[in-house]
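Technical appendix A lists one of the benchmark inputs used to test multi-chain prediction within the project. The record comprises two sequence entries:
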Amino acid sequence: MNSFASRYFTDLPKTALSASYWIFVIYLLLPLSLMMAMSFKEASFIAFPIQSWTLDWYAKVLQDQQFLGAVGYSIFIAVATTVIALIIGVWIALLVAAEGIWGRAMIFALACLPAVVPGLINAISMRIFIRVLDIPTGTGAIILGHTVHAVPFVVVMVLTRLRSMPHSLTDAARDLGADNFVAFLRVTVPYLAPALAGSAIFCVLSSIDDFVRTFFLGGYQPTLPMLIFAKVQGGMSPEINAMATIVLIVTAAVGLYAEHFTRRSKA
Amino acid sequence: MTESRTSRPGTAGREAAPRYRGWIGQVTRSPLYAGTIGVLAASPRARLVLLVIVPLAWIVTFNIGPIYQMGRISLMQTYPAPDSGAVLTLDNYRLFFREPLYFMPFIRSLIFAALVTVVTLIVVYPVAYYVAKVIRPQNRKRALLLLLVPFWAGEIIRTFSVIMLLANRGALNYLLREVGLIDRPIPMLYTYFSLSFGVVYLIALYMLLPLYSAIEKIPSQLVDAAADLGAGPFERFRRVILPLSKDGIVSGCSLVYLITIGVFTAPLLLGGPNTVIFPEIIAALFHASNDKWPAGSAFSILMLIVSLSTVGLFMKLVGGRSVRLS
């Protein structure tokens, strides 16, 4: 008994740390699990307890043209954002990594600006900006807003990888007769592939999840978060939960797959 | 890329170019390529221009441009400016300091963000420490993943899920009533409690990752050495672990503070009339008709300056390095 007590007390910090971890996990998972559970409730309003269960809300959501339209629209915006952000982000990273360019630290700091400006101010300044340039709100404005936000993250991820790349690789390609463009395509881009994959996943997920920029830059066609927001404001029913659950499971699957993929390519 | 190097003799001539298979070969063989990108790739000056021009144009137009336009409009009396030309004025900034309706939510926002940052730090630090140091290394990735998964759900979905827990007919009130602790639901939604709960729920990750990577780098030998020299758990924490994780604390707190200052979704769904914070005030000015845009711009500029300088001051005082995004 005595030895048990002494062991218990020396392990106390460890036990407390472990408890804090599991309490935190519960804190993170509980609201989302409740939200998922509610999507199976057989009633047209959101309230606990759940007495009878149904799959009807899912059947309803999967036939909902508005929902399917929003899914397509969100994916379109995410893909466009990712393509532009990758091109611009790699370009800026190449500039920051190049030797003998004056003011590279300054360029890097300014390139990261949209990532440190609070989200709401970023969104509002873009709203003002497109108004000054007479760009209408809607698809183009949303893609622009998402891209401006995503580029700094691409720059940082690509730059980290680029700095670990030996010069000898591109030099060898050029000695073998490749011009700079071919050396870039055949040597630099494949070397950057893990960083590009990570950046692409980040761009897609952050674009699909984005609310505040879309809120200020969007037109009448809703993206997924806008649609869910509108439904929450317009009176809640478990239909929203079914929608959110589908979105949650798909994005988590993409995230898990990406995690798996990047871990394998690092090994 | 080694753009600064001049082209070497022997590789400048296009005749020496090898033939590539696949689509790259088709592209490089085409006369269009030889006349455009081929020429650019061969000339060092053209390459330099190509390397510099797009990033600079992008940064100046889209990173500086919007902030500049916001600053310009914040000095206007009305927007759009009348045909007779814009009159520049500081009235919009004066309005902020004169009107408690604007001033008070701003102060509230600053205090709220500071409190949320401290609470998040206290809640997340032991969790980050547990994952980085206590768990066996082979389980570490999985333990971290369990914490990351909820953050792949978007802002709206996570905020909405908090309603499930805290609503009058939500899970928590139902549980308390079943147990018999309360007769009627405690109104938890639309209060500072629900707002902070939701905000911490949104941003905990931005505290977790910097803390985790800082704590993970602390060599275990240092902690063991302190223990051998007779330091108890608390002493080890205060004199070894805490100072060595300072970088992570500074980055995590800065990120969380900056995000909380500009939080918009959580007050929209979880806040009530008693919890009006500054982002809502700004957003309302932009939703109203256009004549409020100059005031809204001025308020945004003030918020930007105050939040960035608070973080800058904090980093200077605590002495950590600058925020790193990776």
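Residues 14-68 of chain B form one domain. Chain B touches chain A through 97 residues (CB under 8 Å). Comparable benchmark entries are summarised in Table A2.
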